[in-house]
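On clarity, I found the account of how folds are encoded harder to follow than it need be. Since the whole study asks how a given chain folds, the encoding of that fold should be made plain. For illustration, here is how one protein appears when written out as sequence plus structure tokens:

:::
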Amino acid sequence: MNLLGGVLRNTTRTWIPEFFTKNVATPLQMRGYHLDLMPDDEQYLGGGIYMRPRDALKLGQLYLSGGTWNGKRVVSQRWVERSVANQATMPDGRTYGYTWWRHELRVGDRVYSQYEASGNGGQLVMVVPELDLVVLFTAGNYNHVAIWRKFREELLPRYIMAAVSTPPRP
């Protein structure tokens, strides 16, 4: 990601935090965020973006809506589609887009595609397009993936997705 950041900086001739503010934070009306910098004063792109939960949810909603926010184009629909598509398959079968992990989640006899941006500790922005759903988990379980993996594998399908995918009983 830092290599990509260098390409972005050199192509746009813009400091990455300035680029983020102008092209992401301002259109999404984010505030109170913090971007970690590296010793060379450039933004660290391997993590370390601190933002309010409501602003993290906006990123998921932006992608769910195909790159628009409040009716305005922020990211091209083509980029959204490419970034959530399978770009790499790990040896264990997990798939990855461009900064989005991809999963298949079962609820009853249905399987739903889900993609997520995840942070070390259990900060997960999860998108389930078929259910028109964006879910956020925040946690501080750093370096304990076995704990926060349960957010996706158990809590999301068992409680949240089941609640929105099951029609109410008469």
Observations:
- The chain has a mean pLDDT of 93.
- Strands lie at 34-35, 49-50, 68-69, 72-73, 88-89, 95-96, 101-107, 110-119, 123-128, 133-137.
- The helical segments are 2-12, 16-25, 53-64, 77-84, 145-165.
